[in-house]
């Protein structure tokens, strides 16, 4: 049985686990319960009626959060040498070609997102065993394989994020920081809801949304009414 701290148990007494909160009420409560001396991340955990072992029930997409993520991300770009300056000017933190590929092979992973142009993907394929387990392998589905470097880099810098279903059919998505206003967190949450509904896999059958909880990094899960979330 998981051991919980006295602090966490106290927070649970302020939460009605049998009540499904409206999105705004849940966000207010999440912010009210925060009592850690650092700015926590707001997270949403969504169980979907999908079985990711079937190809037509997998869900991996990207979305631009209108109020950003609140996180400063380091972006690495692998491209041909003649596009290095373009990537740097757009805000990339690390830029290279075969040299960067070799550095990654040697263990360099000091970045949060790896973007690549399509003409160099053949060379990057050999990094699959290194990048794949860490979720860093460039993919057209995730929007990280592109020929429009400027647009792509700026989107990820301003709040674009990727989400994907885990093996249990659950999405775990950060959608801001607790120092965001409730309205900003709400706008980000609705953007996620719209994206998840829009990208419902073709193989999805029956009930799509099963449960939704939000929480801060160190806080308890707060159940949200799916009907109120999806009918704003």
From TrEMBL:
Keywords: Plastid, Ribonucleoprotein, Ribosomal protein, RNA-binding, rRNA-binding. GO terms for biological process: translation. One of its GO terms (cellular component) is large ribosomal subunit. CDD domains: Ribosomal_L1. The keyword rRNA-binding applies. One of its GO terms (molecular function) is rRNA binding. It comes from the Eukaryota. This is Ribosomal protein. It comes from Gracilaria edulis. The gene is rpl1.
